[in-house]
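To: structure desk
From: M.T.
Subject: fold request, one chain
Message: Could you run this one when you get a chance? Sequence is below, nothing fancy, just the single chain.
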Amino acid sequence: MRKQTTPLSESQIQHDCVQWFRLQYPFLALMLFTVPNGGKRDAKTGARMKYEGAISGVSDLILLIPKKGYASLCIEMKKPKGTQSENQKKWQREAEKYRNKYVVCHSLQEFMNEVNTYLR
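Reply: Done. Structure tokens follow.
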């Protein structure tokens, strides 16, 4: 474990979650993936991504395993006090309409709980 003196960024939390998942569920490792919508980009790159099909608000991670009547598990990662944007809430409603489970995780522990509950 790393010694933490400053709060973890959303990126660091997500990295820890993906690393844990790949160690805990190596046989499912390829089914959990990130959706690279976030981050700062120049206008040209942003326009190209939109042209290629990027959609604002899509969850950070998707576990493409159907379980318990759900088509997949969509995971939005946030810092401990982070909240969803309006586009993220809109995408959540749409994803849930089509039987996808959607969760917001603010820590590795929350992520572990959600994934274990979903898969077991």
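Reply (cont.): The mean pLDDT is 92. Let me know if you need anything else for the meeting.
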